[in-house]
Amino acid sequence: MSYALLRPLLFALEAETAHRVTLRILEVLGRTGLPRPAPPAPANCARQVMGISFPNPVGLAAGLDKNGEFIDALFRLGFGFIEIGTVTPRPQPGNPRPRVFRLPQARAVINRLGFNNDGVDRLVNNVRRTRYRGVLGINIGKNADTPIERAADDYIACLRKVYSLASYVTINISSPNTKDLRALQGTGELDQLVGALKSEQRRLADAHGKKVPLAVKIAPDLDAAQIQAIADTLRRHAIEAAIATNTTTARDEIAGQRYADETGGLSGAPLAARATAVIEQLSRALAGEVPVIGVGGILGADDARRKIEAGAQLVQLYTGLIYRGPALVAECVNALCENPIETADKRR
Length: 348
Hints:
- By secondary structure, this protein is an alpha/beta fold.
- The protein has one domain (3-338): Aldolase class I (TIM Barrel, Alpha-Beta Barrel), CATH 3.20.20.70.
- 39% of the residues lie in helices and 16% in strands.
- The strands form three sheets. It has an eight-stranded parallel β-barrel with strand order 3-4-7-8-9-10-12-13, surrounded by four helices. It has a three-stranded antiparallel sheet with strand order 5-6-11. It has a two-stranded antiparallel sheet with strand order 1-2.
- Helix 6 packs parallel to helix 7 and helix 8 packs parallel to helix 9 (301-310).
- The longest helix is centred in the middle third of the chain and has 22 residues, at 187-208.
- Residues 343-348 have low confidence and may be disordered.
């Protein structure tokens, strides 16, 4: 069954239920050999970022597979890399339901999930069982009941447990759905957190005989001074990548629509321009020293192109899959691989 036929049935379900049903369908189809795995990307698709070879520049953003339960099924869709999580040291239920809202008119989603996950130990067990051997990012966060001044303890605890299994680890400090989390983007807070994690990274690299890169995921709701301060911190600590952006708390693009007043992070088409602007500002501030992964509002090939033109070296999808289905992956891969784009970074 094509996604165009399946989507009305899924949209008839409550949004979070539909999410789970979709993943189960992919899992079942995968066991039967369907959909057939996407063909290998052409050689010109490969990208070297963070010292990692990505077979193509289109990845799955964190949030879709929080516990790493569906990695094999998702890889069959043709992603060049997959990012799972956000995971926390201890299991937590997240915020009360309903907490996910579709806005079809805007091709958008609002969520206030709140890092609901089964805990890092469960994720580690799931990853160990997977057959996937491609590029795997693991996105880590703090438990909701951990005081913000002790946030580094949670991030370090997760980093230690996922280090040996991850191609790279993403430090999520930008979800709007965990109280005070975005305060970690402040200059002093970020400097302390990143410093602690880089120190732990060095210790783990010695212990495991390999260096696993760290990426920091930032919010789209930042002004120019904040973006510059974050860039300065990432450069000073030699962080390996920045991911821009998470969801937005802004509602100007959806004012008056159903669910527009629901709290949480807004993703999808209304986020596209805002995320791209942050990518461009961040790329300029990083001056080529730290690569950027672009995410936010990619619902077609042109959206992916704009992220690359703004300075991103890789892109990630999530909400676009809800509205476009698996065909979006191949569309973006083909667009970015067949017509190589001169990035803002290279033009400088």
